[in-house]
Design a protein that fits this description.
By secondary structure, this protein is mainly alpha-helical. Helices cover 56% and strands 7% of the residues. It has 8 helices and 3 strands. Strands 1-2-3 form a 3-stranded antiparallel β-sheet, with no helix packed on it.
Length: 171
């Protein structure tokens, strides 16, 4: 991918392809131009990302000095269509919970693993949580019980950059 950046520089007018190795602002500008060209030619965004990473790897002095190039990548990624995953059907969750409880009764030595699973699956499902949010990061202290609902504090959510660091869900 680094080689593709060098090939892009060669395609520029004379003099426009020099000096970028020691001038971070110029390198940032050239990388932005290349990212925009890749976008315009409908290349995959990972090609642009790996190109920037390749330049940073080969020229360590440019690390953290090319923010505009990374901003171009973020803008490109924001424009990409998103795909929502199909949620698991409610009956599948209910079957998993019932199976976990029946296995606990049949084999009590598995209780330490299956009881938390049987409790967390419905919390994650009805709270619309991502698997990592209820399997890895959910603590008892994150659950707030009111008279008619449960409020779940989501620590370190995946969407903290766009939706805020403090997020919650209600069941």
């Amino acid at each position: 991918f680094y080689q593709s950046f060098l090939a892009y520089l060669v395609s520029l007018p004379a003099g426009a392809s020099t000096g970028w190795q020691t001038n971070a602002a110029l390198a940032d500008q050239r990388l932005c131009e290349m990212v925009n060209r890749l976008h315009d030619t409908r290349a995959k965004v990972h090609v642009a990302r790996k190109t920037i990473l390749g330049v940073q790897y080969m020229h360590r002095n440019l690390r953290s000095c090319i923010p505009s190039a990374w901003d171009c990548i973020k803008t490109w990624e924001a424009d990409l269509p998103s795909r929502n995953r199909t949620p698991m059907p409610r009956v599948a969750i209910q079957a998993c919970v019932a199976t976990a409880w029946s296995l606990v009764l049949a084999e009590p030595s598995l209780a330490a693993y299956l009881i938390p699973l049987a409790v967390l699956l419905p919390i994650g499902f009805y709270g619309l949580l991502r698997p990592g949010e209820f399997l890895k990061r959910l603590r008892v202290a994150d659950l707030y019980f009111t008279a008619d609902q449960v409020v779940i504090a989501i620590r370190s959510p995946k969407t903290k950059d766009t939706a805020g660091r403090n997020q919650f869900s209600m069941i």
